[in-house]
Amino acid sequence: MIRVTFQRENGSITGFDCRGHAAFAAYGKDIVCAAVSVLTTTCVNAIESVAHEEAEVQVSEGSMTVRLKNAGHDAQVIMETMRQGLKDIAEEYPRNLQLIENSM
Q: Fewer CB near the last or first residue (10 Å), C or N of the chain?
């Protein structure tokens, strides 16, 4: 199962941790894993190239950790859009994707 944990501060998403494997299908054919990868990678790229904000990003086998240095409006729109996409996937594939919200 993939678990995506969102970090919130004063209602704003300040980062997320994405860990695990969907185990929906064989490696290279897993549509849940591919969808999560596309959404998370696009989110990070858009924060930097569209919102022009910095993010601290750590990627390793089966995990991605992202922390925003500034949680500005445009970055929030991008993060909330990714969260909504992941929520939609989790509703369709609850055995393969779980979202967790942590507030500070």
A: C
Say whether pLDDT at 27 is over 90: no
User: By C-alpha distance, which of 93, 102, 68 is closest to 2?
Assistant: 93
Residue 67, beta-bridge partner list: 15, 56
Q: What is the DSSP letter of 95?
A: T
User: What residue segments make up the domains of the chain, in order of their start?
Assistant: 2-102
Claim: this prediction has a pTM higher than 0.70: yes
Q: What is the model's pLDDT at position 76?
A: 96
User: Which pLDDT belongs to residue 87?
Assistant: 98
AA letter at 17: D
CA–CA dist 43, 80 (Å, integer): 10
Tokens of 2: 């993939």
Query: Which overall architecture, per CATH, does domain 2-102 show?
Result: 2-Layer Sandwich (3.30)
Q: Pick the more confident residue, 43 or 26.
A: 43
- Give dist(CA 86, CA 80) in Å, integer: 10
Residues with Cβ within 8 Å of residue 62, at least 6 apart in sequence: 19, 20, 21
